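ok new one. same drill as before - structure tokens go in, u give me an amino acid for every spot. 163 of them this time. try not to just spam alanines like last time pls lmao
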């Protein structure tokens, strides 16, 4: 979610002889933010159904100069939505791993695929934890039966590790 260079982090941990006990796998929401605040309405509207109060949904915003702004929860990011320097938001929501496209919004699924590919190559941990817990607070149109969703999560990860 935070725009990390996953391979660089693994190299740094290895250089410090820090072992990874477990890899936590979860997907966040992301969206490109139009440079002109007047052109952001559709993107902000797409985030609105994910603005719920059960969990915190921190947002990391990438700005035009490559720096980052951090918001403790989605309401604070939405309140600052007219900042013309912002170019992308990533919101901590734990959306299903097996869904990449939410229309205007996307997931950070490609980051997970990168980490799983590194795991296959470097075997830096033997333990994985899939952490999607927002099933009941997902917008209704994105919900599937819970059992089916959990099975799809695990199958999605397993498939990437086997190929």
């Amino acid at each position: 979610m935070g725009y990390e260079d996953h391979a660089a982090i693994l190299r740094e941990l290895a250089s410090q002889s820090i072992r990874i006990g477990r890899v936590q796998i979860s997907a966040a929401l992301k969206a490109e933010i139009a440079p002109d605040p007047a052109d952001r309405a559709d993107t902000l509207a797409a985030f609105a159904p994910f603005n719920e109060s059960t969990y915190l949904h921190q947002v990391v915003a990438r700005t035009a100069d490559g720096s980052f702004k951090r918001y403790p929860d989605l309401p604070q990011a939405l309140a600052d939505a007219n900042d013309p320097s912002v170019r992308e938001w990533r919101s901590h929501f734990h959306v299903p791993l097996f869904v990449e496209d939410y229309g205007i919004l996307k997931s950070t699924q490609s980051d997970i695929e990168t980490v799983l590919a590194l795991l296959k190559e470097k075997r830096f941990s033997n333990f994985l934890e899939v952490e999607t817990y927002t099933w009941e607070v997902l917008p209704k149109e994105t919900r599937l039966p819970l059992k089916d969703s959990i099975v799809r999560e695990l199958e999605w990860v397993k498939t990437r590790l086997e190929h």
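The first helix runs from residue 6 to 15. and btw The chain has one domain: 6-162.
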